[in-house]
Structures are given as structure tokens and as C-alpha cells.
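Field: COMPLEX_INPUT
Field: COMPONENT_COUNT = two
Field: RESIDUE_TOTAL = 850
Field: MODE = joint
Values follow.
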Amino acid sequence: MTERAGYLPGLTDDEVDWQILRFGGADAPLEVAVPVLTDAQMQAMAERVRVASRDHLKTLTISQIIDIIDRAVARLLDRKDPYRRKAEEILPIVTGYDAEMIRLGLTGYLKTFRKPELQKFTVEDFANPLILDDFQPMPKGGFARAFGPDILTHIWAGNVPGIPVWSLVSGLLVKAGNIGKVPSAEPLFAGWFAQVLSEVAPEIADCFAVVWWKGGDTAREEALLKESDVVLAYGGNGSLSAIRDRVPVTTRYLAYGHKVSFGAISRAALDTQKAADTAHQAAYDVVRYDQQGCYSPHVFFVERNGRISPQDFAQYLAHELETFEKKYPRRALSIGEARDMATWRHGEEIKSFASKNRGLIGNADSAWSVAFVDDTEDLSPSGLNRTIKIVAVDALADIVPRIAPYKALLQTVGIAAPPAELYALSTALGIAGVTRISAIGHMTAPEAGWHHDGRFNLLDLVSITEIERSAEAAADTLAPYAD
Amino acid sequence: MTQDHIIEMLLAFIAADDDQPDTKARASEDAFNEVALQLFAYQFENNKPFRQFSVQRGRTPRTARSWRDIPAVPINAFKELTLSCCPPEDAARVFMTSGTTLGGVRGKSYHPTLSVYDASMTRGFKQYFMPDRDRIDMGILFPTETIMPNSSLAHYLALALAHFGTSDSGYMMQDDGIAYNRLFATLDQAQMSGTPYAMLGASYSFVPLLDEMKRRGLSFALPEGSRMFDTGGFKGQSRELGLDEFYDQLAAGFGVPREKCINMYGMTELSTQFYDRGNAICPSVKSGPHWIRSRVINPLTGEDVPFGETGVLVHCDLAHFNIVSTILTEDAGVETEDGFRLLGRADGAEAKGCSMAVEEFLKAAQA
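Field: COMPLEX_OUTPUT
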């Protein structure tokens, strides 16, 4: 089976060179043909997208654009739609994630892009979304209008399905011409989304493109970067800083790096009734996408002196992980991933020899591991792929010094605590660098309009043009009706 | 068994005649097993953290039937645990890892005597690097043992110089790095006299050297019989070169064909080294002398992967007697008919998504 990736307005398949990426095992081999554009093709396409976004996208109102996205998302939510079927069939092969987990994940995720959600998303960043359509009066006086970039370049990374959609939708909402570069780990979904958009709204079919180049192909990358007004990039700090070095200084560069997330569980959530449910929710956060997301937990800090001790909670969690393994088995690991997981597990095992306050649950055959630490322990990343650490604390406030050194790396904290504790802790966590707080069990499903890594996702993309009061007043003196 | 008995047994085993020097035909499995299991019993008895580890893994000398049953200690354990059969303060020498990862904690290997290490090194080196001659003019691109007393490589190279170097051999280093003028004069001399020359150093030492030669527009055509020795990879010490690129540049820069460029694969956590038969094809096949054996395993289950598939390397080195003999590395490899193909640290360190992996976290947290 061969599937073509990308979305290339103005180019036919024959005009483009294709490279083959291989996925799947012997039982379900899959070839994905990814496009390799020449510099001239890349340049011509950028020009096409630039012109089309000016002529078409930028003439639509924000509510028309929201309607278009809503129609595209409705199709992808429809399990009978051919693209949806393709996604359900092929994404598990490409990413290795369990098919049922992908199906549920896609629905849960795409739901956050329906019309009402998009409207919320827009007002999160623009108190008056009409500022995207026309000059609007400002509280300070004068008028202002927000303009999206002609070319917004997205450099996506990773294999968590659907992530590019979020970035592409942001670009569309600000009426940008979009060119997205898909990662080799999951090169397909963004192209399908673009295809569906072009089918529901042919008038904007040339306003976006989905391309590919091999990681490290700096020539190809530079060809696009120099055409861009704004560059959005995702990835590890190494690749982000390499991209930054190539972005022209006059181009806005927005980088989203890898992050670490964790959970905090108050003793209030640890009575005999609630503890099992808390553990179930916590396990769900670990299992979803096998901890590959920036919002995935690596550690759960658990309060002592509840009805259920942190150590028992570790057992509950282990039990839930074992149960989930039957429902959503972990994907097959590469040897490098297995090595990393083994290194983490062996490390925890060896530390447990030296201390009776440490332990490791799960044997070599388990698809998961739970480490337990009843001692002072800093936040640290897990071995990924369902490895999680429980760290006991006297009070949730004790977490703050344990995460302080890692301010720039923090993202989500899942919290199970009563309201007073939630708000008090959230303040301390915000100061420490945390940007998102969710319920346990919701860590991997950010709500529509969330501020990714604490940023204004739409506002960061636009430029504001202001008509100051003086211009207004001066214009008045020149009006034909002036006295 | 006492330490003295162990040492005596090992020295005899290393010195034993081994008709066919190549990996496949090393000392018979039985002879190897016998020594390995005695060593396991010795380490189990005298090395408490190792005993705990073995018990935890459900492997004890009573149940082990072959060297393959001895639990492999992950190399990270050398950072967390004091693994030594003799009291650590009795060690004649402590070799330490470079400590570039895991927050600068360095793994330690305690040696109550270097007699076994030295016997292992000299016999292996002879077999793989000097099969055709006893001594050679040698230039070493690495600091001396005096400067780096905890570096096993510094000791290794000092042994190479003492046992296999001619009187015209020496270190080609000065305070600020490689002594380029002296080295280039020596290479000129070798080229003119037609005397074979050997250059030995860390892989990363050769990178600035090649750069300097390029800057000066120099290249050499060393006489036939000359050879190159590199080890250790680039480890962020120099710019990273692909293996083919590296050996092409060595061959072009010194006139030594790639099949005479030998790469040694060793670790602080071992007392025996692996070598290839030159690097005409990369990655090369590595093998070791008859007192070391390797397995390729799935690191999670500890089971051997099917022949020809990629896994993680486990080495059982009888010469590493005081610490633990069987270690689980972080290196990926594939078993071949006559050894293994070393694939280096398997990638996967970076998560597939936007989650942060340990290595990146440590780097970012240190920055």
C-alpha cells in the first residue's frame, strides 16, 4: 500500500520528485511517498500561497473562516468520511499507537475545533474578533486592525496524531497563507486536513500547502524560511536553535520546545473510594500516546497521611496500567526506545538497592513500570512509554522547590486537590513556570483555546496596524464636509 | 576462592594458547563457562551490591549454568553503586568514566592490581593491532597517565607505548593540545625513511589534527605497514564526523588505507577491548580475544534477540574480575558470524512527540 503525503497547490504529482518512507511491520507494510520540491518549486508555491491568501482568505470574514473550518472538521469527525476512514486505518500503522486509542483521540481532539470552540478560541486572544476583519475602535482612542502574515511557515515534529491541525487552524483564523512541513514520524494527517479544507472551500484551496523535507536538509529549509513572515517551529531545543540560526532576523520566530509535565495528588483524593478513581485517571494520562506529549506526566507527587499511602497509590496505579495494557496495548518500541526505558528502569532498580524508601513495581515483561520514592526527590523525566514515578510529599506545597530548577521546561500539572489547595498551589506553580493546570485524567487533552506554553497563540501571529487619534482628527480637517 | 587464586586463574586463562585467534574459535564455550561461573561465585560472595542485584534478578551462582545466565549489570550502576570485591580503598587504581552525563556523576572501576588488565590489554593489542611485528614507531595523540591518572585510555595507551613502541615513539602532545610541528616533522621523517609509523589516539583527537592539516595544506603518504588507531568516537569533544567521512579523511591525510585504520571499542567498565579488522566498510565488525564474549539482547526482557537483529550489547569480560564481569551497555549492535557490528548509542533518546527525554532534560537543566 502506498499513500501520498503533502498538499501541493499548483503542482501535479508528475511534476514533483517523491521519496518513500516505510512504516509498519511485515504484516502491514505501508509506504508513504513524501514530496521533495526543488528550490524553484518551493519558491513558486510560496508565491502562489501568498497571492491566494491575499486575494481570497484575507477577503473572508472571521466568521466565514470559522464556518469553513467547522465544515472540514465535521467531515473528519464523520466516521464514514473517506479521509476519516483513511486516518483510522493508516495512522495506527504509521505511529504504532493502538487503533482504538487513535480513534478516540482523534474524535476528542477534533471536537475542540467545532464552531463554538473556534469562536471561544478566537475571543481568548481577541476581545473583539472583528479586529481581524476591519479597523475597530480602541479603548485608548483611534482604531486598530490585526493582519495575519502572508506566509506563516510551520515546522512540525513528532508523531502525536493531529498536532499540526491545531497550528494550521491558528494560521487560518488569522487569515495567514500557511505552509507546513510535516515530520517523517507522521507525515500524513496535515495533508489530509488540507485536502478536506480544499474540498469544502475550493475558493481557498491555494491558501495553504503541506510540504516535506528530510530533517537536516538546511538548503530546502532556508528556501522556505526566507519566504516566511512568521515561522512556528516545534521540536527539541537542539533543532529549534538550529532553525533559529537560519531564520532571517526580520522574521518573527515562535519556538515550541519539548516540555515536562507532572501530576500532584492531595490526600483529599486518597480516601478508599476516591483513590481508585484517581489512580485510574492518572494511569489514563500515562497511557495516552505513551507519554510522547509535552502534556504527558512523568512524575506524580502524592501527599502522605491520606487514607491511602503514596506507596499504596503506586500499587493502585500499577494495577490500572496493567488493566489499560489489555485495552490499549502500548505500541511496539524501537530498540533505542527500549534501551531508554530499560536504562530508566534499571536506574530506579539500582537506586532501590541502596534505599529502603524506594521501590520499583513491574517486571521485565510488563509494558509499564512504576517507581516509588518515599524521600526528597526532584522532578525528572521518566523513561517514557509508560514509565512513571510516584514521589511522596508531606504537602503539595513541597513540590515547588523540587521543580524550581526546571522553570523553562515545565508545562502541564494535573492536580487532584480541593479548591482552596488548587488555587494556592496554582499560584506557586505559575511562578515556578507551569503554564497549564488540568484535572488528572485530562492532562493530555487541552481544552480549545488553551494558551500553548503560556503564549497567545493567535495574537503572537498577527501584526496590529493602528490609526491613531491624530490621524483621525487630521483627516477630519480635510474632509469635503469640513467647515 | 581468594583474590590471588582468581588472578592466577585469569592470567593463565589469558595466556593460554588459542589456536585460532578469531572470535568464533575462541576458547571453547566450556572452558570460558568454567572461569566465568567461578568468577560469578567470587563476585557474588564479595561484592554486596552485585549480590543484591543478582538476587533481585533471581540469578545466583547456584542456578547459573552458563555465562549467559550471569545477570548483566547496567553501566549506569557504576555511577550509583560501589561495585568492588576488594575494599575500594585497597584499589591500586581507579578508572573513571568521563562523567559527561547524569549530572556529572562518574562511574568508577576499582582495580586492586593492574596485572590482569595489563595482560589482557597487551595480548589483545598484539593480536589485533600488531600481529605482524613486535614494535613500531608510534605517536600518541592523548595525554599521559600522569596527567589523567583515572583514565583507562591513558593507561591503555601508555601500555601500548611501553610494550609495542620503539625508542623513537612518544606522545605528540603539549600543554595546549597536539604538538603539531613536532608531529608533522616526525611524519615527514617517517615518510622519507620509509619506516612504518603508527598513530594512536581518541577519535576526537584526529578531528582538529585533520583540520590543522587542511589549514596548512598538508597531507602525508606514510610508508607501507603504517597504521592508525582510534577509539571512543567524538562524544561532543569535536565536531561529529560520519564514519565513512572520518576514515576517508584519515586515509587521504596520512596515506594509510582504510583497512589499516583500526578502531578499538573499549569502556571504563571493561578490562578487555574489542577491535575491528580495519574500516574498509563501516560500520565494521568488532571482535575480542578469547576471554571476552558478547550477547545482543532486548534490554527490557534481557533475552537474546534473534541472530541478525539489532539489540543492545552485553559483554562478559573475564578480565574485569574485581568489579562485575558481565555488563549491559547502552550500545546497539547486531551479531554477525565473527563478532558484532557496533551501531553506537541507539537513537530513541529523543521522544517521538514533544515530551522531553532524560538526556535533553539534563542538558537543558545544566544550561
